[in-house]
Amino acid sequence: MLLKEIKDIYHLELDLLFPKEEVDSFFYMVIEHYLGLERFILALEPNLVVSKENETDLFYALSQLKLQRPIQYILGHAHFCDLSLQVDENVLIPRPETEELVYWILELVLQGNFTLSSKEQGIRILDIGTGSGCIAITLAKKIPHAKVFAMDVSKKALRVAKRNALANNVEVQFIEADILKGQDLKGKYDIIVSNPPYVRELEKQQMKKNVLENEPDMALFVSNEDPLLFYNSIVQFSLDHLAPGGMLFFEINQYLGAETKLLLGQENFSEIELRKDMFGNQRMLKGVFRSEG
Fold first, then answer.
1. Phi then psi for 29, rounded to 5 degrees?
2. Longest dimension (CA), the chain
3. Which terminal residue of the chain, N or C, has fewer Cβ atoms less than 10 Å from its own Cβ?
4. Strand 83-86 relative to strand 124-128: parallel, antiparallel, unpaired?
């Protein structure tokens, strides 16, 4: 079968479920993954024929897309900050908003805008609720001599994160622990960062079917009654585990920016800053831990 005919079938089957531009993107991602072909191949070879064996892979991907399974889970990987990460249904798919949070951290770290807890040890970073390891692994990759730790309550998520660290040739110390149970880790950190569960149950109706039916609930949702549960726990943990002058970073619920900011304002944090993401939503929060109350 001609490759252009398969592309037409993708649109025939998927255009009622997704925007046409997104269907194009799916098709190009699939042919790159399974066939090693660039997206402009049809312009160069409009009559390119696909073998029966390769047809099977392309139509398998199509069948999964029709079920609205995320393309990243179908292909088994996602791109994040120039890295390729393995993903499956045990971890969230990394989002562009989280990339923005990481780039904010990198901007401040590479400017040297804080005092290290130990000049001998170098910068120490803890990622709480690491999932695929996207935040921890990127920071370990891009910050020379950083000592990076990553915590998650899920054994399955940690297995994915460990594979990603190995594949990207970085050293991250992974910790299986539940931040809600008041973990007491040794040492101080210069940076604590977290993208914890923050979607309220009442917000489920705003979410796409492919997210609700595929990505792990435990990494997404919190109760309507206590939506800042994880933020409270992480702030309290940070009071004991951030070095003076250390920084706390959060990805946050866009509707709860003021409330989340207040958590830091009520504690020993200064230079508290909310940032909007590329879509204009309040999505990131930073605070600096003061050396004195």
1. -65, -40
2. 71
3. C
4. unpaired
Length of the chain: 293
On whether the CB atoms of residues 282 and 99 are closer than 8 A, the answer is: no
The phi, psi pair for 48, rounded to 5°, reads: -65, 130
Tell me: the pLDDT tens digits for 194-217? 999 998 888 888 888 888 888 888
Q: Is 181 helix (H, G, I), strand (E, B) or coil?
A: helix
Q: Smallest Cα–Cα separation from 197: which of 242, 253, 249, 151?
A: 253
CA 75 to chain centre: 17
- pTM comes to 0.92
Burial of 203 (0-12, 13-18, 19+ CB in 10 A): middle
d(CA 179, CA 201): 21
In the numeric block, the tokens 């001599």 are attached to 145
pLDDT tens across 7-47, in order? 999 999 999 999 999 999 999 999 999 999 999 999 999 99
| Helical (H) or strand (E) element with 148 | strand 147-152
